[in-house]
Amino acid sequence: MTGDMQMNAMTDQGGYVTEDGRKIGGVMMEMKNITLRFGGVVAIKDISFDIREGEIRAIIGPNGAGKSSMLNVISGFYNPQEGEVWFHGKRRAPMKPYQVAQQGIARTFQNIALFEGMTVLDNVMTGRLTQMKAGMAAQALWWGKAEREEVENREFVEKIIDFLEIQNIRKTPVARLPYGLKKRVELARALAAEPKLLLLDEPMAGMNVEEKEDMSRFILDVNDEFGTTIALIEHDMGVVMDLSDRVVVMDYGKKIGDGPPDEVRNNQDVIDAYLGVAHD
Amino acid sequence: MFYREAGDFKTTYVDDNQTFPIKFDRYRYYAVLFVALAIVPFLVNDYWANAVLLPFLIYAIAAIGLNILVGYCGQLSLGTGGFMAVGAYACYKLMTAFPEVNIVIHVVLAGGVTACVGVLFGLPSLRIKGFYLAVATLAAQFFLVWLFNKVPWFYNHSASGQISAPERSVFGIVVTGANADAWAKYMICLVFVFGAAWLARNLTRGSVGRRWMAIRDMDIAAEIIGVNPLKAKLTAFAVSSFFVGVAGALFFSVYLGAVEVGEVFGIQKSFLVLFMIIIGGLGSIFGSFAGAAFIVLLPVFLKNVLVGGFGWATDLAAHLEIMILGGLIVVFLIAEPHGLAQLWRVAKEKLRLWPFPH
Questions:
Q1: Residue A136 is nearest to which of B208, B224, B228, comparing CB atoms?
Q2: Chain A: nearest CA to B287, how far in angstroms?
Q3: Residue-range definition of the domain harbouring residue B143
Q4: Following CA atoms A74, A80, A84, A88 in sequence, which dihedral angle do they give, to the nearest 10 degrees?
Q5: Average pLDDT, stretch B196-215?
Q6: How many CB pairs lie under 8 A apart between chains A and B?
Q7: Any idea what the CATH number is for the domain that residue B247 is in?
Q8: What is the rounded CA–CA span in Å between residue B308 and residue B323?
Q9: A182: contact with B, CB 8 A cutoff
């Protein structure tokens, strides 16, 4: 597709321009009427929303609202009983998480899910595994493609390491790192996969103000420099309102709001959900 | 002081990726290789080869194999003895069926056969984990030993039910059977050990190794970054069984010469190799060597000290030996649960700064 046609396609699908002048493209991922049940418990009830190309999309809601379940649906951990997931204009068949990863969707976890027994460098290198294709034989002999591939991917990983300013801990085992740095390493691992869509599950949970500022800066930079589309769950309202282009609000598995931060902020249902409301 | 990195700058990623990045380490490695290849073969006699060197080298291969599965991929296995038996019997069948083919090829093929069997018994690992998987692999252990006892085809219908290695040579030098020289046996095992360690190191430092370690450390996160758990676990089973099979083939053909499966490749062998990697260090090639050395060399050493040095009765020494070995294992594991390899790493860290720790 040429650039012009791409632009047309975008505007056809209703792309928009943000206040700070970033161009948001067409729909990248669309969730249509997703319902997810665990036995009798309904975690997600008939939710639809979309994520656009280049956008920072936040999912918020009180505890137990089903936000993480939503992310798990996107990344393939759960297959919803009802509803469809559309990615790049195609309906996605139910698939395993590793197949989702190969489609270009990376994520971080609410509780850090790093490989504790490996160094920072190795952890970030695992992010490149979808790109590394050398066969067993070549690797066993460390010959030809295996070594070349290792060096090429190392170069890419070093860029990410520079970008996230973790050069000095490259060779440190992850288990020795403090919490804030682990979060950053996990982001590095996700970025190393060159994702089209990056899912962040509470990237700032448990951080102090300074660390939150750093993390916010990194998220904005990722979006800006790599053009990565980002969907994030976060409880810090200040951060969410500042970072995101559009916000989905969930409560008890239902969608109660969707739109730009300002609109969501003034939505009566959202205020009720967060502040509580007298049921009479 | 000895392990200084200062001034030893790496300017390429290839340099940075090498196995021994520190100069002193590299030279020590070359020195060990030189001694093993150029000096030991001239000194070795039957006692040293049979009591110390051959078991050490062959167990080192088995330990490397099991370490790939348990230490790198996190899949607990108690089937090592059974898989070694597969290697031994495959080697025996190949040796007797194709006498004109080189024994080295037979040993490698025996490893290949074991890899296939290993993958088969690795299939349950997709559904079960940890101790439960260990029990499932125990089934492999018992089944395989039973199979080799029960089906006469495997031991060519010999009256004793044993398999014994016919005489075979490499480059005109006899390496199996009663007429093989100690140094020839030693050299062929050494070549296989070197090959196994080299292959294992290459596999564990690249993307395959990272897939295994990712599965070991957190399988959910591994899947989310694109690791196919089925493929990662089965490749680990295949590679691990390959090395274990090679070890079994050498154990039978070069070391023992004649084997009765229940006696040699029973459950105690599985535990022995597992203890080696636990004591040596899980997830470390060096640890496989250290563990094999500890388990093989220490009894010999103790025996020499107690019987040879103090002149005690052999039976008394034999019992004391077991007690001391057991005690040492406990002490080591309390002092360093991550094994000898970790002790070695800590020692190196200290040596980097010694004698000026500040």
A1: B208
A2: 15
A3: 44-353
A4: 20
A5: 92
A6: 111
A7: 1.10.3470
A8: 18
A9: no
